[in-house]
Amino acid sequence: MWFVVFFFLTMAGDRILIVDDEKSICDWLEIALKKEGYNISTANDGKDALEKFKLKKYDAVIADIKMPRMDGITLLRKVKKLEPDVNFIFITAYGSLETAVDALKLGAKDYITKPFKFIEVKNKLRNILESEELRRENVYLKKQVEDFYKGKKIVIKSKRFRDVMKLVDKVARTSSTVLIYGESGTGKEVIAREIHHKSGRVEKTFVSINCGALPETLLESELFGHKKGSFTGAYKDKDGMFKVADKGTIFLDEIGVTSPLIQIKLLRVLQEMEIIPVGDTKPTKVDVRVIVASNQDLEQLIEDGKFREDLFYRINVIQIKLPPLRERKEDIPLLANYFVDIYCKKIGVPKKKISKEVMHRFLKYFWPGNVRELENAIERAVAIEESSKIVLEDLPDKIRMGEIPKEKSLRLTEIERIKDTLRKTKWNKLKTAKILGIHPSTLYRKLKSYKIERE
Fold first, then answer.
1. Which of 189, 176, 194, 298 is nearest to 253 (CA)?
2. Does residue 360 sit in helix, strand or coil?
3. How far is residue 190 from each of residues 150, 253, 289, 372, measured CA to CA in Å?
């Protein structure tokens, strides 16, 4: 939803340059497009337009092809040298269609034939700017994600995790499907990205999707794409994640919660390496490295009739089990200091030290949220502590209280933690999930599984 909001907020101020030797057309389009919220400039020939472009950046140019002094094609070539990504829409007479087609080959986005109605201009301009905005947003988000994970390194000392990384090195050289098991917060996506970055597909796209975060219909569309008109809200064709990840890697987290329909379609992808978008009948071939993850026992889900056995054998080619943080405690001091360094730099404060009392608590604590919970605790401590040392008072209550009593079952302990956090947040589930270091969808499943209801 926020993508759509972002688009409409930015589109309203887009700068448009109208270029036509017929002043009446310039005036007409200027008046009409200003009413739509655009920032409009006009020029009566190519040379005038080029001078304006040198002084000011425009998001789109609507230009006639046939003009004195400098025609539209020449203008396109010269403007593209100044601004390669500028969006061009050409106005052309019926007899110049061949020239308009040539313009598309040179980088124009579309053309309109005379005589035309304003609705044509409005729709073409809106569609082009919407596509461009989404493209820029996707590039930005991809860079943000890549920068985030480039800044993250896998900190290890324990033998168990060193063994995991040795297996990652071997697996990365293959194209085999990988199943990663691990509790929430153990770093399953980090390991998936490590496999991708060490593979021959590193120059191609890595995409990640949490299968538990979306309802079935939306997940199907996100994974496999859809055709225009296939359901309410499908206003245009859309590529799914498998198509986006073609020649690259796709990571499917929480695969154990997928519906029977999604499981059948995933089985087809793995067997045939082809997808069928929602609303289409024609299969499309893809070449994708598939990595899946689960914090549930898939074999138990098979026995419970909740997961397809044939799909399990397709994804269980190479299995990687990530040890929980409580089983790799020698990594805790390294990880804690690493996160302190990251968040001190991020917040812009001098490097802080971790007190002996805090480190003792870290080593005694059970870490049900694993590395993610440790990272969240460090981020909180760095943010609220004004001195140069992190002390016990900077830690969340559940960590400051120390080790969880061994006589309590993990189930009862988890139920108590969830209820306690819900009370503190006044039953705000999003805040509760963030504090617990788990995904909201994971929290919802736990509430249902444990039959936790509002008190």
1. 189
2. helix
3. 10, 12, 16, 11
Cα angle 362-365-366, degrees, rounded to a multiple of 5: 135
Alpha-carbon span 152 to 52, nearest angstrom: 45
**Domains of the chain listed by start with CATH number:** 2-135 (3.40.50.2300), 161-323 (3.40.50.300), 326-404 (1.10.8.60), 406-455 (1.10.10.60)
Please spell the DSSP secondary structure of 393-453, one letter per residue.
GGS-HHHHT-SPPTTS-HHHHHHHHHHHHHHHTTT-HHHHHHHHTS-HHHHHHHHHHTT--
pLDDT band at residue 293 using 50, 70 and 90 as cut-offs: very high
Q: Are 206 and 249 in contact (CB under 8 A)?
A: yes
Q: Which of 37-46, 380-389, 407-416 has the lowest mean pLDDT?
A: 407-416
- What are the residues whose beta carbons fall under 8 Å from the beta carbon of 299, sequence distance 6 or more? 312
String of DSSP letters for 197-225: HTSTTTTS-EEEEEGGGS-HHHHHHHHH-
pLDDT-based confidence at residue 134 (cuts at 50, 70, 90): low
What are the strands, taking DSSP E only, across 245-324? 249-253, 274-275, 284-285, 289-294, 318-321
Q: Apex CA 394: angle with CA 392 and CA 400, to 5°? A: 45
Beta partners for 172? Answer: none
Torsion sign over Cα 172, 176, 182, 187: positive
| Lowest-confidence region among 78-92, 151-165, 245-259, 428-442 | 151-165
For residues 96-106, average pLDDT: 72
The answer to whether the peptide bond before residue 115 is cis (omega within 30 degrees of 0) is: yes
Burial label, 415 (beta-carbon count in 10 A; 0-12, 13-18, 19+) = middle
**What is each CA distance from 12 to 37, 58, 133, in whole angstroms?**
5, 13, 12
Distances (CA, A) of 211 to 32, 389, 445: 45, 40, 13
Exposure pattern of 17-38 as b/e (b: 16+ CB <10 Å)?
Answer: bbbbbeeebbeebbeebeebeb
Residue 164: partners with Cβ closer than 8 Å, 6 or more residues away: 191, 320, 321, 322, 323
For residue 180, CA distances in Å to 70, 170, 266 come to 61, 15, 17
Global pTM?
Answer: 0.59
Residue 381 CB-density burial (10 A; 0-12 exposed, 13-18 middle, 19+ buried): buried
CA atoms of 215 and 152, how far apart (whole Å) = 30
